[in-house]
Design a protein that fits this description.
The protein is an alpha+beta fold and 201 residues long. Helices cover 27% and strands 28% of the residues. The chain has seven helices and seven strands, in the order ββααβββαβαβααα. α1 packs across α2. The longest helix is centred in the middle third of the chain and has 13 residues. The structure holds coenzyme A.
């Protein structure tokens, strides 16, 4: 993959939890969590677009069929968090034999920074550990919200591996960074590398 002219790179952290007893619970809000049991690909597309706006890139070109395939795969679950009946965020789980992956995780921008991220993650990890699971895994990167990695570590997840990949200049993420639409890059400019300070306004 050619490097971005500005030398931008993505740092991907692969996190895991190997024992349910490692989970450091944190609640303290009136959050209710319920599974959306009926699969509805357009719900996941909407949640991804709203929660991930400014942070998550790469699915811009997904077709209806891509979303259907994504949400209809075996072991896929969608969970929403509610405060007083209003959805505040969501997470997706993918259960595959002895491993559960937390796929998308996050809050609507309006609810960030009030302790709900810690509470929602506590609920996500508890549910991830249900069943046959021996390991819970999740990936985050330097384009996510700056509280993402600290939240995962604070709840007891461990860093298994970190990758540093050049950002393809043609990618949606690189384009968003150049245009000042990547909020994660604005917060995390210090670890984007290259000439990030010149690129990220
Ligand atoms: C990541 C996200 C879920 C965190 O939620 P939040 O409401 O901001 O976090 P909380 O206030 O509940 O704090 C949770 C933890 O984040 C960390 N944290 C909170 N604010 C922080 C900040 N400004 N800087 C660094 N870490 C911070 C702390 O570790 C805290 O845990 P602690 O209180 O036990 O120490 C939320 O910001 C979000 O959804 N962002 C957009 C989507 C996204 O990036 N999702 C993650 C994809 S991997």
């Amino acid at each position: 993959m050619p490097a971005d002219p500005a030398g931008l790179f993505e740092v991907i952290h692969h996190l895991e939890m190997r024992r349910p007893t490692d989970l450091r619970h944190k609640r303290g809000t009136d959050l209710e969590v319920r599974q959306a049991r009926l699969r509805l690909w357009s719900l996941n597309r909407w949640l991804h677009g709203e929660v991930g706006r400014g942070y998550w890139f790469g699915r811009e070109g997904w077709t209806t069929e891509d979303w259907q395939r994504y949400t209809e795969r075996e072991g896929f679950e969608t969970w929403l968090g509610y405060l007083e009946g209003t959805p505040v965020g969501y997470f997706e789980l993918v259960r595959a034999r002895e491993q559960t992956r937390i796929k998308c995780f996050g809050l609507f921008a309006h609810f960030v920074g009030r302790g709900l991220g810690a509470h929602l993650l506590t609920e996500a990890l508890e549910r991830a550990w249900q069943g046959e699971t021996q390991k819970v895994v999740l990936d985050t990167c330097n384009l996510d919200h700056p509280a993402a990695l600290p939240n995962y570590l604070a709840r007891g997840m461990q860093l298994a591996r970190t990758e540093r990949l050049p950002l393809n200049p043609a990618s949606a993420a690189a384009q968003a960074i150049r245009e000042g639409r990547c909020r994660g890059a604005i917060y995390n400019a210090h670890n984007l590398g290259g000439d990030a300070d010149n690129v990220v306004k």
